[in-house]
Amino acid sequence: MSTENTETEERTVRCMIAKVGLDGHDRGARVVARAFRDAGFEVIYSGLHKAPDEIVQAAVQEDVDVLGISILSGAHNTLVPKVIAGLEEYGAKEDTLVLVGGVIPEEDREDLKDEGVAAIFGPGTPIEETIEFVRENAPER
Amino acid sequence: MSRKEETEEERRDENDELVDRLLSGDQRALARTISKIENRSPGYRDLVSRLHEHTGNADVIGLTGAPGSGKSTLVDKMAERYREQGETVGVIAIDPSSPFTGGAVLGDRIRMASNVGDMEVFFRSMSARGTLGGLSTATTDAVRALDAFGKDRIIIETVGAGQNEVDIVRTADTVAVLVPPGSGDAIQTLKAGILEIADVFAVNKADRDGADRTVKELREMVGELSMPPAAGSGHHGHHGADETGLFSDSDDRNEDDDEDDEDWTPPVVETVAKTGEGVDGFMQEVDEHRTWLAESGELEEQARERYAAEIRTLLRQDTAALIHEEIEARGGIDEYAERVLRKETDPYAVVAELMKPVEDCVRKERQERDD
Question: Is B127 on the interface with A (CB under 8 A)?
């Protein structure tokens, strides 16, 4: 747009909303995707039934600031660590904000956070709360 | 403007490291480089400058067409086949962003079903943010990054709607336009700009009603456009409107390929991207166009023209920014507009006043150079 001195950086928060594993319910993921878009974020939606590898590939290549994983199947304890290990392999764990949405029992939450999940948003979380969290915690790069 | 705390030197070191990592095949470095390009992050120009010398080895294919014409699905099939041939692939998929919030949902990735987990296919979604002429520049630069990374084939995918998209696909060596069947109206709209830039037409979803007619209409239109009325002598002209069978045209027509320095007549092929039918024929045409480009010398010519256009675009942007800076320093453009309104001055006089220091400086420098 201009010489570099006067050029203003156009930073937009990039997010990926991912559905992992054998779970065909993506109403929630779609609602979040749309709300994120309306909040001015760029959202990449993964589509259904993705393997952890695919999510990692997409998150790395798209260089997303935020990875939101939606899981309603109960397999979060195996799937989420796999995704995070994959991010680590590509050096992307440190500066990707990983969020989990869906039905996560209270007793599993600490373990997920230890794995590197920044926040967990269960059913009924107001979408504004999630957006606010992203705005405040999206990594500075 | 932002991040003042980072010095020029630090930024240079950072770019050094990033370029090294990119050239050695680090996925994350490639992804981050494209982000910097997209964001116009401080130092991105230096970054792109360094990449330039490593480019020039990739075939760049632009793919455009109306929403729903099956672009993403075709891209997926193309990537799959390139991988079967042992080639690496980069894809840039451009989606228009929501104009109100600047946000966007980028969904093209969903269709990349055949290449999941295959890191040799690098797929990147870009929104149309920064549309003020910047998007085609950003696309060109992102293609450079993929090229320098070592991708053999790079596909740029975008919705064909307006001038912006035309500018984007023009950054490719070969432009393919997808047309859904039965779209008489769609062909009418194609006339406005897209038709002229197409090197290959694909009537996709060719298993649907109306495909034959669409193929025929397109061929007629291509015939009207292509230059010499000397019938049938064109590279591809002879397999025109009389062949209607699905995919029959790509087989037996290489015999006249030795007729060089012919103009290129865009072929019209039928594809069903979803099942993969006709995709080989389509890709063969894309390859033939590439061969023609190389043999006719058009490839270099095109590149030269593109670089010239790029230099002009950057110059326009930078001079505009310099002038903008000057106007701001003088209190903003509103003041000038107000004075024009009150008839104290006129637009030409204002421009003359603002341009004077620039002209003086440029001419003085030139004088000194020439002496």
Answer: yes
- Residues of chain A found within 8 Å of residue B32, distances taken between Cβ atoms: 63, 141
Strands A14-19 and A66-71: parallel
Tens-place pLDDT, residues B42-75: 889 999 999 999 999 999 999 988 777 888 899 9
CATH class of A14-136: alpha beta
| Comma-separated ranges of CATH 3.40.50.300 domains in chain B | 55-296
Q: What is the spatial distance between Cα B57 and Cα B294, in angstroms, rounded to a whole number?
A: 12
Facing residue for A60 by CB, picked from B31, B110, B318: B31
Class of domain B55-296: alpha beta
Residues from chain A that touch B101, judged by Cβ atoms under 8 A, are 37-40
CB contact under 8 A, B109 and A44: yes
Report the pLDDT value the prediction gives residue B134, as an integer from 0 to 100.
Answer: 67
For residue A95, the tally of other CB atoms under 10 A from its CB is 15
Residue A82: other Cβ atoms inside 10 A = 18
Pairwise CA distance, residues B313 & A108, whole Å: 55
- Separation CA B183–CA B369 (nearest Å): 59
Option in A9, A50, A58 nearest B39 (CB)? A9
CA–CA distance, B92 with B24 (Å, rounded to integer): 21
Quick check: B321 and A36 CB within 8 A? no
- Distance from the Cα of B92 to chain A's closest Cα (Å) equals 10
Rounded distance between C-alpha atoms, residue A139 and residue A64, angstroms: 10
**In which band, very low, low, confident or very high, does the pLDDT at B328 lie, cut at 50, 70 and 90?**
very high
Could you give the ipTM of this predicted complex? 0.88
